[in-house]
């Protein structure tokens, strides 16, 4: 007896979305991502990357096509479970950190799920430990550095124990040390990850696969190193590597024991 393959963790087919002003942001967007994959989502500003991401936990309602998370349709009746399964870390940490202390911010989601007392404390402590921020638990978020705030924002998502982690421009505003610390944290997370980023070396460091989004659809999909080594492809979609950066050398260094 043949056992059917599990559904992709992320499965979008022919998704279309038009904003009220008539702007067509997604036009036949199709993408499937398997369990445990780390995928870089690349493309110029206005290409549809963030609009796509906002479909994954139902912030944007599906207008056209099909969309599911681990086989569960992204639809109004499933939104509480979809939003538990898909954790989003926004570019602006102010969108996620709004409580007086780090402890309260990380506890906010699980508390709304019904966790209380010791069970809630354990969930908070585990999430902060995963991002190396246990020592920040009683700090005020607005007193943290950019890198610390980014890690705490990540912990607020991990406390919900999601199946998918979506990060929108995760290195935005980080200094080199904060960027390096975040990369180390993300590399250790055994979870399906989507990184929406213009930071191409960061994408190569963390992702084996990359897709390019342009005009509201996926126009390239391949190994991260092959996509980043294709200079005409990058140029056509307004993507640039740092001067002198060789993606094949970077990939080789990452995979050398």
Chain-wise SSE layout:
Elements: E1 10-18, E2 24-33, E3 38-42, H1 49-55, E4 64-69, E5 72-73, H2 79-85, E6 86-89, H3 102-112, H4 117-130, H5 146-158, E7 164-168, H6 176-187, E8 192-196, H7 200-206, E9 209-214, E10 217-223, H8 224-228, H9 231-236, H10 247-254
Parallel strand pairs: 3-8, 3-9, 6-7, 7-8
Antiparallel strand pairs: 1-2, 1-4, 4-5, 9-10
Helix pairs in contact: 3-4, 3-5, 4-5, 5-6
Describe the structure in your own words.
With 257 residues, this protein is of the alpha/beta class. It has one domain: P-loop containing nucleotide triphosphate hydrolases (Rossmann fold, 3-Layer(aba) Sandwich). It has a 6-stranded mixed sheet with strand order 6-7-8-3-9-10, with helices on both faces. The protein has a 4-stranded antiparallel sheet with strand order 2-1-4-5, with helices on one face. Helix 3 packs parallel to helix 5, helix 4 crosses helix 5 and helix 5 packs parallel to helix 6. The termini are far apart.
Brief description of this entry?
The protein is α/β, with parallel strands linked by helices.
* Spans of at least 5 consecutive residues with low confidence: none
Based on Cα principal axes, name the global outline: globular
The run of helices and strands is: EEEHEEHEHHHEHEHEEHHH
Binned, the helix content reads 25-40%
CATH class: Alpha Beta
Question: What would the average pLDDT be, to the nearest integer?
Answer: 92
CATH architecture descriptor: 3-Layer(aba) Sandwich
Query: Would you tell me which CATH topology applies?
Result: Rossmann fold
Largest sheet: 6 strands, mixed
CATH superfamily: P-loop containing nucleotide triphosphate hydrolases
The portion of residues forming beta strands comes to 15-25%
Beta-strand segment tally = 10
Number of domains: 1
Which class best fits the helix and strand makeup?
Answer: alpha/beta
Subcellular location: Cell membrane
Protein name: ATPase component NikO of energizing module of nickel ECF transporter
Keywords: ATP-binding, Cell membrane, Membrane, Nucleotide-binding, Translocase, Transport
Organism: Euzebya pacifica
């Amino acid at each position: 007896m043949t056992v059917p393959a599990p559904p992709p963790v992320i499965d979008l087919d022919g998704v279309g979305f038009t904003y009220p002003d008539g702007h067509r942001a997604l036009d036949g967007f199709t993408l499937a991502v398997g369990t445990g994959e780390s995928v870089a989502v690349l493309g110029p500003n206005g290409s549809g990357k963030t609009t796509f991401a906002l479909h994954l936990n139902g912030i944007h309602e599906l207008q056209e096509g099909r969309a599911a998370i681990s086989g569960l349709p992204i639809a109004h009746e499933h939104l509480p479970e979809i939003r538990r399964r898909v954790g989003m870390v926004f570019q602006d940490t102010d969108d996620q950190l709004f409580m007086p202390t780090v402890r309260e911010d990380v506890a906010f989601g699980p508390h709304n799920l019904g966790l209380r007392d010791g069970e809630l404390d354990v969930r908070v402590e585990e999430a902060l430990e995963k991002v190396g921020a246990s020592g920040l638990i009683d700090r005020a978020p607005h007193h943290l550095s950019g890198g610390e705030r980014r890690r705490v924002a990540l912990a607020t998502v991990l406390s919900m124990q999601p199946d998918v982690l979506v990060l929108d421009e995760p290195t935005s505003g980080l200094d080199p040390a904060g960027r390096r610390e975040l990369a180390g944290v993300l590399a250790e997370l055994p979870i399906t990850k989507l990184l929406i980023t213009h930071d191409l070396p960061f994408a190569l460091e963390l992702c084996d696969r990359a897709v390019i989004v342009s005009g509201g659809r996926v126009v390239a999909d391949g190994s991260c190193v092959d996509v980043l080594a294709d200079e005409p492809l990058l140029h056509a979609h307004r993507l640039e590597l740092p001067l002198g950066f060789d993606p094949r050398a970077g990939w080789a260094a990452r995979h050398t024991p």
